[in-house]
Every structure is written in structure tokens, then in C-alpha cells.
């Protein structure tokens, strides 16, 4: 009899822990930050500071638990031809998945458009957080998407490789 109770307690505990883990990964840490994201910026071909582009209807989410959880969607009247002649393009960009409830950002559809050439990826900002760059993809019809990617310094720093002189010093954490 007591074995059944112990087994039942273990199963119920596992169910509760699994549900809590799912909730925290998909909903718990994310918060909408649309009001804080007022502009979209891209790195110009001639310059070291990102410049603002025309963007409307910006919707964004972020989480303090990781610098690469940022996702955003927007629209722009700017053409891909003008953008590609003015701003730094990226050869390879792979969008990160967003939670299903953030329905404007479909990583698979964005990746398909990038692959098909109906969307182009641009460097948004370098080192928005240590070792993390902001990537912006824009489609032919003016839909735009933003996500964060680890850059070379970030990948080296987070996997334990010696960083080297070409990377900036990692800021000290306040914890």
C-alpha cells in the first residue's frame, strides 16, 4: 500500500515540475517590451554607429534571463533595393524560434523567405549586450523581424574558449 502512495506522490510531483518547467520556458520569463522599442536601427555601409530606419507597428518581447531571447516584428516602407545599397547585409542569418503565443514571429517562415531571397538580413547593432548582435530581416513586402545572435566573441566567451584581444572585455556582473 505505501509503495502505491510513494509512486503516486512521485508521479504527481513529476507532473507539477514538468508543467512548471513548460510554463517558465514558454511564458514565465518573457514580457512584452513594445513600448520600450521605439525604433529599428541598421548598420550603414559607411559608418560605425547604427542609424534609424523607418519602422511602424513595432511589437517586441524580451526576457532578462538571456540576452538572446529578444524578438520583434515591424513594418517598413523602405525597399529591399535601397536597404541593401545602404546597410550592412548578412550572408547567413538563421532566426531563432519564438514562443507560439508571439504569433507575428514565425522562425520557419522567416528562414524560408531568407532562403528564397524574398527577404534579406541586415546587421542591426553590434554588441547590444556583450557578445550579442542584433539581426534584422526584412521581406519584399515590408515586414521586418528582429532577433539576437551570439557573435564570435560571445560564442568564445560562453563556451569557455580563450577570447583574445580582438574581443572587448566582458563587463563584470553586479551579482
Question: How would you describe what is shown here?
Answer:
The protein is built from four helices and eight strands, in the order αβββββααβββα. It starts with a helix and ends in a 16-residue tail after the last helix. A six-stranded antiparallel beta sheet has the order 1-4-5-8-7-6. Strands 2-3 form a two-stranded antiparallel sheet. The model has no long low-confidence stretch (mean pLDDT 86). The protein is globular and about 75 Å long. With 175 residues, the protein is an alpha+beta fold. 30% of the residues lie in helices and 27% in strands.
Rg on CA atoms, Å: 20 Å
Strand order of the largest sheet: 1-4-5-8-7-6
Q: How many alpha or pi helices?
A: 4
Structural class computed from helices and strand pairing: alpha+beta
How does the overall form come out from the CA principal axes? globular
Total count of strands = 8
Largest sheet: 6 strands, antiparallel
Sketch the topology as an H/E string, one letter per element.
HEEEEEHHEEEH
Average pLDDT for all residues: 86
The poorly predicted ranges are none
Strand content: 25-35%
Distance between the termini: 48 Å
Amount of helix: 25-40%
